[in-house]
Amino acid sequence: PAQARAPAAPSAAVSAIDPRQSYPQGSYDELPADNMRKTIARRLTQSFNEVPHVPLTIECEIDALLALRKELNAKSPEGEGAYKISVNDFVLKASALALIQVPEANASWAGDAILRHKHADIGVAVAIDGGLITPIVWRAEEKGLATISAKVRDLAARARDRKLEPSEYQGGTFSVSNLGMFGITSFASVVNQPQGAIMSVGAGVQRPIVRDGAVAIATIMSITLTCDHRAVDGAIGAQFLQAFKGFIEQPVRMML
Fold this sequence. Notes:
Elements: H1 35-50, E1 53-61, H2 63-74, H3 87-101, E2 107-109, E3 114-116, E4 122-124, E5 126-128, E6 131-133, E7 136-137, H4 145-160, E8 174-178, E9 197-211, E10 214-228, H5 234-249
Helix pairs in contact: 3-4, 3-5
């Protein structure tokens, strides 16, 4: 008689334990994964298995940023040239400037070398039907806030319509994922290979702080930087976060 073949080993993106064995038939709906979801699962599994993740968290006061944002948006012209700058636009600009100030953090691991990038090409995580995509603002350090804002809106809209070219979402040197709009105050993301780090941005929340020996109220935003320790170790990540915090808490510095 023919010998029974052993089941094939699961791929890196498939669980070794089929969860369908744990639930009675009819108790769930099964939604087949499309190619995008399979690719996301495969890449995230690969990153989590291969990359030594190091999360670092810092808190930033953003009241000055919120005041400047309000002032800038109030000066937006009508019609052509109008803009509406978001907190995330400030985050992208501050990230780009911090990467240029701390170039060791703007790096990728290449197996036998560390690639230190010359420009801050920032990926912006955008949720779309069936998955997540990270379109890139190229050379973000050279762009003003209004330009970054317009670029992100355009990229996000075309990402949701699945009209991005591969050159608009492949590559990049760093990523930002912001879940603050959902009320999430703190989280850590999986590194988006081949990039060396990803920043997770939480919601700004008012809470009491001690300033000059007295209790005051400030709007605090929690930031977690997840580093690929092979390219960006903890000390470098901490230096980057200090530079980022300086730009966020003194936002007029971004305009120099």
